[in-house]
Specification:
Blueprint (H helix, E strand, L loop, with lengths): L2 H10 L4 E10 L9 E4 L5 E3 L7 H14 L3 E5 L8 E4 L8 E9 L4 E5 L3 H12 L3 E5 L12 E4 L6 H9 L5 E4 L3 H13 L4 H4 L2 E2 L11 H17 L14 E3 L6 E3 L5 E5 L2 E5 L2 H9 L6
Parallel strand pairs: 4-5, 7-8, 7-9, 9-10, 10-11
Antiparallel strand pairs: 1-2, 1-6, 2-3, 4-6, 12-13, 14-15
Length: 293
């Protein structure tokens, strides 16, 4: 499977990854313009982004992009002075240079809608238009919800109480109930009688959506989606990606980052292990270790 096909499959499955693309190169460099690679949260790489000098740095920055959710442009081996560009010195014997754009691809927002009505149909359609993952449920059964998940309960009084109770048992940070003020108060009273705490009930929003006054069913769907978009814009409903940073070391000769596990050039000196990006750095160090320490 090629890189772009794999990227599409991972995105469809809701798995996070970073896509690294070589946007410019100056030969000699093993990275070619347009070369792409996928970096997963465990640091594994599929595709091609360059040799020993570039790879550890790109992986490190890709994992950082997954952690903070922001893209970055890497400039390797250039005298880059533009703001917001990560400059990485290159001391490899190839003397090449290149720029790599790293983009985090995070799971789409996760919306679970309980209940069947024209309003829920409209809400599901609108959210799908935004590229959100939408699951419509006829029963209060929730699987694989995270803190970034959003739940909207709109059963028209059929089973609001058990649906909200089930939602509160998940880590979902947003739980909205479509109901009148009086109906919502009755649901909260029922939940309290079942042992729901103030902390848990603080996650319940009712009526769900922005207050647009007296509106039609389709407009209620718009109000709910607008509220969810606004909450996500504040950063409170973005799922954190757990990454596994590989063990790295700094080459004492050229200051490049070296992947310890994959390092092929290693030297022991005075009881300390040193790792090198290439044979030339290792030879220079072994010839005169003191000058580099």
């Amino acid at each position: 499977m090629d890189v772009l096909s794999l990227a599409a499959a991972l995105r469809e499955a809701g798995e996070p990854f970073a896509l690294a693309t070589v946007t410019w190169r100056q030969g000699p460099s093993s990275g070619k313009g347009g070369s792409k690679a996928i970096i997963r949260p465990d640091g594994s790489v599929t595709g091609w982004i360059g040799g020993a000098c570039a790879r550890p740095t790109v992986v490190r920055e890709a994992l950082a992009s997954l952690s903070d959710g922001t893209s970055r442009l890497l400039s390797l081996g250039t005298d880059e002075t533009r703001p917001d560009v990560v400059r990485v010195p290159m001391a490899c014997s190839s003397e090449g240079a290149m720029e790599v754009y790293v983009e985090p691809i995070l799971p789409a927002p996760d919306l679970h809608i309980v209940g069947s009505s024209p309003m829920t149909e409209t809400l599901a359609a609108l959210a799908a238009t935004l590229g959100w993952r939408v699951r419509r449920l006829d029963e209060p059964s929730f699987d694989d919800l995270t803190e970034a998940s959003m739940v909207v309960v709109a059963t028209q009084g059929d089973f609001d109480e058990p649906a909200v109770e089930a939602a509160l048992s998940t880590p979902a940070r947003y739980i909205g109930l479509v109901a009148s003020t009086k109906r919502a108060a009755g649901v909260v009273e029922w939940l309290r009688s079942r042992g729901a705490t103030d902390e848990a009930l603080a996650r319940l929003r009712s009526p769900a959506g922005l207050d647009l006054g007296s509106v039609e069913h389709d407009e209620i769907a718009v109000a709910i989606l607008a509220e969810l978009v606004g909450l996500r814009a504040t950063g409170g409903f973005t799922e954190a990606v757990a990454v596994s940073q590989p063990e790295t070391a700094v080459d004492p000769v050229c200051d490049m980052t070296v992947d310890v596990v994959a390092a092929r050039f290693v030297t022991e000196h005075d009881g300390t292990t040193y790792y090198f990006c290439a044979a030339g750095c290792q030879r220079a160090f072994e010839a005169d270790p003191v000058s580099f320490l």
